[in-house]
Amino acid sequence: MSTDRVIRWGIVGPGRIADSVVPDFAHVEGAELVAVASRSEERAQAFASKHGIARAYGGYGGILGDDEVDVLYVATPHPQHEAVALAAAAAGKAVLVEKAFTATVAGAERVIDTVRREKVFAMEAMWTRFQPAVVKIRELVADGAIGEVRQVQADLGVDRPYDPKDRLFDPDQGGGAMLDLGVYVVSIAQHFLGDPTSVSVTGSLAPTGVEAEAGLLLGYDDGRAASLLISLRHQTPGTARLHGTRGWIDIPPRFHHPKSFVLNRSGHEPERFDLPPLGVGYSHELIEVTEALRAGRLESTVMPLADTLAVQRVLNDACEQLGVIHHEDERVAV
To answer: pTM surpassing 0.85?
Structure first.
């Protein structure tokens, strides 16, 4: 496959996150944003006009049948991700699916099985892993700068006033702290420690029955651990720390899209690294997908589907321990 062809993008779900992502396409060589789709034609047209996008579709059938769209960025609420991703795969289109990848483990498994069978590219939009600061941290860890990583700490909390109409508190839209915030803390722990063998959780629920806050302890057979905090009730610093046998790395707020970090090696002075992203920071995941498609790859090595599934299992396990059962939205018309 040509490594210099233009990859044509479409957006499904023109909400807040998509609005933030669009300007970063300017930093992506070989990518062109050509279409947007929403269940509301009015919203699609307004989004297209705002961002200078050529084609707007009311409903998802039009963009799925558009032969001039190579890849879809799926930014709908979590329970709608599965239906859109499955339809995209059936149409032969690659997908970049917002986190959390789906609302359930079964949904993630169905999407992963389908894209592999159809031989189309798919990736979870975990922008954290592609931030220049995190790329450098990954290199330092691989080179043994802090020895073996034994523990990870991370927190992510926001002060979100309770509103039963807010998506974050609506169970039908996959609301709750776990899928929106927990995905970040679990993903960074899984990235540097691997898949846990045990998940323990404590927390509280909002009146609508979704998770308002939670503390997770991920355990490993060899004694490694991750201590993770999330909340919709109050803001937290949003920091992360990787503890190794020969030092540690501090990632300052907000760790999920950092511009810097501090390397603390035993016997050495702390060393600060400043590595800001291109644009807002979404550009790097867009570059990953665009380059993968130009090269004919079906998965990202940085955010592989196996990691996505491992994180999804932790998220849903923790939710279920709190008595929260998420569901995929079977009413999505595609």
So the answer is: yes
